[in-house]
Amino acid sequence: MNRKSIATFFLFAALNVAGNAAQPNLDESIADLGHRWAKVSYQTPDSEKEAAFRTLIANTQQVSQSFPDRAEPLIWQAIVLASAAKAEGGLGALGKAKEARDFLLAAEKINPNALDGSVYNSLGSLYAKVPGWPIGFGDKKKARDYFEKALAINPNGIDPNYFYADLLADQGEYAKAAEHLKRALAAPARSGREDADSGRRQEAMQLLESIKQKHGEQLASK
């Protein structure tokens, strides 16, 4: 091999190494999305959330494009879209909710167990909160079914227990809701998700306190 060939070989080798180093790592990308979501959800003023979520939606799209055959980016696209819809409110948010549902259904086909069953937890949350027919696709029974699937995969998780409790409280099942809120509060810490856990734990404590104040007699009778 002459000098020119050797130089060309090392040039292509260097470019290949640089290219591999520049490729995003899925776990790191997902962790980054999680931290960004927690910051917008729990630390950003309400007046600034819509704009912050728009930026985060673009971030999730980039990650999905980098990993087109993985369920995790699709789940995070859905989570961010659903959160943006909540921040936006009104019927104008329905389009984002429908798009979030479609991403989750696509993720389910790839890997329904990804991110500890977050596909089913997120679908349950959407069906619980979106208005029903003829306005939207909301369905409390479907929501309950999805939450039960999520809990079958991750029975001690903070998110499925909290969101299921929220649905139960909405349907007047306060004692059962309180049980799941206590499970949410006792959920093991998730490494790298401390910021999200902190915010969710605060929500669980607030809902449990509200149930105790308004429906304490029902809890005492159980």
TrEMBL record:
Q: Signal peptide location in the record?
A: 1-22
Q: Does the keyword Signal apply?
A: yes
**InterPro entries, sorted:** TPR-like_helical_dom_sf (IPR011990)
Top-rank taxon, per record: Bacteria
Keywords, ordered alphabetically: Signal
Asked if the record carries the keyword Transmembrane, the reply is no
Q: Where is the composition biased (Basic and acidic residues)?
A: 191-203, 211-222
Region of interest (Disordered), ranges: 187-222
The transmembrane residues are none
What protein name is recorded for this chain?
Answer: Tetratricopeptide repeat protein
Source organism of the structure:
Candidatus Propionivibrio dominans
